[in-house]
Amino acid sequence: MAIGVLFIVAAAFGAYGCFRGALRFLLTLLPLILASVLLWLLGPLLYRIDILRNAGLMWPPAILVILGVAGGYVLRFIGRKKLPKRIHLADRIGGAALGLLLSLVVVWLGCVYVTVWSSSQDSARDSGSTARLARALDSAVLRWIPVVGSGSRSMTDLMEISTADEEVRRRALKELGFDGLLDDPQMQAVLDDPETMQDIEAAAKGSIPALWRLQKSPKILQLVESERAREAIDSHSLEAIVEAIRRTKQDVAEEP
Q1: How far apart are CA 142 and CA 105, in angstroms?
Q2: pLDDT tens across 150-187, in order?
């Protein structure tokens, strides 16, 4: 099923890119490209600004996305006037190649979403092929694309973490020393708050309102800013957590 969707999307985007040409296709994507570049370059810097950080976890990247999209549309308006009226063969070939590349990104995003959603609905078995396709696209294509690659690796790692069994995650995090976070007062404040825990469970199942409430929750912000949480996050990358989960899965499979 996932492979069939990939072929259909690739054919559609490839045909559109051939019809539009590489230059016009790039101008269409320019707002998204500029927003992604700004988010990649300036995202970590904006989190150092107390006013923005305390406004919520989503506001710093949201500001960069808005600026990038607005700037992209301005550049797109200026660049459109300078485009040649005729679309040459090389331009069409480049557009088709760009369309195929974009189709891989779109299908990968869809695979990641379906895999995480299926896991939250306890139907991970149905998304096995989808998860494999997401990993294959990430390792073969996406991680080699500038800017996109760093985000794709992180999202693929998060997908693997979120789809692991609860017991596997618990043992892997304990192996890495994350269980010490349970003694942190800020973590206890989150665990002891029923509304926050309900929002966390709802957000894990894809609830946007719950995610919005969490990103500006004072308890979540205090937890993110706590010294113990920062030490735990800084000392272990997503790749390290994924490797620990894989080792734990293997240990569980080998247990009698």
Answers
A1: 7
A2: 667 777 777 777 777 777 777 877 777 776 666 678 77
The CB-based long-range contact list for 62-67 (8 Å cut-off, 24+ gap) reads 64/35, 64/38, 64/39, 65/35, 65/38, 65/39, 67/35, 67/38
Residue ranges in the chain assigned as alpha helix (H)? 2-20, 22-46, 50-54, 59-80, 89-120, 128-140, 148-163, 166-176, 185-191, 194-204, 208-215, 218-225, 227-235, 238-254
CA 113 – CA 156 distance, rounded (Å):
10
Token reading at 183: 């003694």
Conformation bin of residue 206: beta by default, left when phi > 0, alpha when psi is -120 to 50: left
- pLDDT (tens digit per residue) in 6-49: 889 999 999 999 998 999 999 998 998 898 888 777 776 766 65
Which residue, among 189, 177, 171, 193, has the nearest Cα to 251 in the 3D structure?
A: 171
Do the beta carbons of residue 75 and residue 30 sit within 8 Å? yes
Q: How far apart are CA 94 and CA 133, in angstroms?
A: 25
- 96: which residues sit within 8 A by CB, 6+ positions away? 14, 15, 17, 18
63-72: pLDDT as tens digits? 888 998 999 9
Query: What is the Cα 110 distance to its own chain's centre?
Result: 11
- Given a contact cutoff of 8 angstroms between Cβ atoms, the answer to whether 187 and 181 are in contact is yes
> Is the separation of the CB atoms in 251 and 166 below 8 Å?
no
**Predicted pLDDT of residue 124:** 47
